[in-house]
Design a protein that fits this description.
84 residues; mainly alpha; globular
């Protein structure tokens, strides 16, 4: 996947994750894209470990995996922020 694909996938996954889990998180389009990209990496790693496969392009499966990873990232962020 090229860098533009990662940015587009990150934007889609980050936006969906923020819609699913609204709250006071860092905002802005750049942060949303970064949450989605890191979520895609996390989701791809977990998906590979569980046998679902990783993120391979901009398709429904990849968007779902990246969104799941972004939701996990937001959960971890909120847990760490509460403790601090």
């Amino acid at each position: 996947m090229g860098i533009l694909s990662w940015i587009i996938l990150g934007l889609i996954a980050g936006a969906i994750a923020k819609l699913v889990m609204p709250g006071k998180d860092p905002g802005g389009i750049i942060v949303t894209i970064l949450i989605g990209i890191v979520g895609a990496v996390i989701g791809g790693f977990i998906g590979n470990q569980m046998g679902f496969g990783g993120v391979g392009g901009i398709d429904i499966r990849s968007i779902l995996i990246a969104t799941a990873g972004a939701i996990i990232l937001l959960l971890i962020y909120r847990l760490v922020r509460k403790r601090a």
